[in-house]
Amino acid sequence: MSVSYEQAVSEFDWDVPEDYTLPSVVEGHAEAHGDRTAVTFLDDEGSREERTYADLARDTNRFANALADLGVGKGDRVMHLLPRHPDVFAIQLGALKRGALLVPCSAMLKPKDLAFRANDCEATTVVVHDDLTDMVEPVVDETPVDTVVVVEGDGSADGRESFAELLAGRSDDHDGPDVGASDPMSINYTSGTTGQPKPVLHRHRWMRAFELVNAPYWWGVTAEGTTAPGEHGSDPVDLDEELLWATTGTGWAKWFWSPVGVGITVGASQLLYEGEFEADEFLSVMEEEGVTRLCAVPTQYRMFTQTDLSAYDLDLTEALSAGEPLNREPIEALQDAYGITPRDGYGQTETVCLVSNYPGIDVKEGSMGKPTPGLETTIIDTQEETEVGTGEIGEIAVPVGNPGIFDGYYDKPELDEKTFSGDYYRTGDLASRDEDGYFFFEGRADDIILSAGYRIGPFEVEDALVSHEAVAEAAAVASPHDERGNVVKAYVVLADGHVGSEGLTDELQEYMKAETAPYKYPRRVEYVDELPKTSSGKTRRIELREREVEKFGE
Question: Does the global pTM surpass 0.70?
Fold first, then answer.
């Protein structure tokens, strides 16, 4: 029986058992349907591996036992630097079973970024793929890290332990410390407009929040095989007939949003593909494997529209998008080709899905959707913490203390006080709301750049640019782009003795790729005599953004 959106909101219940942890959830899946495939792994060379939920529970315990022998216990921080890999879930779950905190890191970071994270949270253990050890080795001596576990490698080198060798001969059972829903689970670093990345602390209940919110009200699945209640109703879901695919990497919060927070919590089967994005290849994989629910970033959907979608016979029933608003062209292309409408989901590293076009409600073109049940997401005045009226632009906010958001930064009480001193956690994203309650994204309040699903703090770009001898001052803003949504645009004031040229632009871009994660480099560079400033000397990025909109469109 279908229910209205209003009823779904009013009847929502934050049912979070005190003993809830992700490893205990997987144990339950192993008992209930241990032979169900949890992970199908493919790489671009044709290798294929599968892990059932029974395999996952077994390897989780074996790795937890290995970590115990290595001295990893409750409260310790375990960094991981891994590609999409068939053992990544067992690695994460094994650390969580020990009561350790996961510190995910992207392979696109630089050694100095890893060193900052390791020193900031005092991580003692790193799990890294053999292909990425060159990133870790330079920072070991300057950080608290004393144990390096290598996946797909051997343990012959000093300070290295082989993941495969650690699991060999271990017990399939593990008697670890008591861990519950309120215990710390992960530290996900996120960047703002100024300063260093911030350590967002989540507790084990974060995964339960995903199971209660993201799974039914975005992906349209639950552990019971039902979909979210909607005004138009929906057919029950048989998880044995579903294959989920989220194209994200393991170092991003989105990994927890979908592969972990949805796929694993509800006990679904999911695909991991370790290959560079190429539209026709991804479509071929979806066709061959029978993917039924896809979550990708807008840039990937835009690239899908550049190929012949009619050439692929897909089993897709749902297409999800996240990272930035999805424009009209890919939406219409998927509607025409497969009769499905991509559904946006909005949230942050600090939250679960706050706003979504979930199964059962009408999708309005250009809208983020409606606030998901349980979050009480609203829009407030940017100066005063009062809700704005219909059609007015304000800041997306969630009441402080809501179980669907984080409740602090790791060992940063000064940030906690600043963030949670008012009635609302303020996202920094601007939106308006129409008469039907649908939200429409209006931009960033704090200048974060959204490009191809990546969130880029302008400070990081500017800080790296001014370290080049030719740059005296720089400002980074979002510049509209047809495929990526936005790209990074740098306005550069040159140091004395330097002249702007295409050669210098190429040099600066290569320099930035070496100094920062590659996705942060400015794809557009403009040389100016001075930057627009406020009376207090702050750069007016809003003025520069307006120039980009005038030049390249919204």
Answer: yes
Beta bridge partners, 79, equal: 103, 126
Identify which of 252, 257, 251, 280 has the alpha carbon closest to the alpha carbon of residue 270: 257
Residue ending a domain, among 174, 202, 230, is 202
pLDDT tens sequence across 181-213: 999 999 999 865 456 789 999 999 999 999 999
Q: Which structural domain range is residue 158 located in?
A: 53-202
Name the domain count of the chain: 2
In this predicted structure, what is the pLDDT of residue 191?
A: 66
What is the amino acid identity at position 521?
Answer: Y
Which is it for strands 147-151 and 160-162: parallel, antiparallel or unpaired? parallel
Residue 11 lies in a domain: no
CA distance 223 to 227: 10
> For residue 275, is it within any domain?
no
Amino acid making up residue 187:
I
- Whether 430 is covered by a domain: the verdict is no
Ordered alpha helix ranges (H), 290-352: 298-304, 328-338
Whether the pLDDT of residue 535 is over 80: the answer is: no
Looking at residue 111, what is its pLDDT?
93
Q: Which of 437, 302, 459, 304 is nearest to 371 (CA)?
A: 437
Q: Looking at the domain assignment, is residue 98 inside a domain?
A: yes
Question: Measured between alpha carbons, how far is 8 from 319 in angstroms, rounded to an integer?
Answer: 22
Contact 12, 373 (CB under 8 A): yes
Q: State the CATH number of the domain containing residue 487.
A: 3.30.300.30
- pLDDT tens by residue, 26-37: 999 999 999 999
Q: CA torsion 282→286→289→293, rounded to 10°?
A: 130
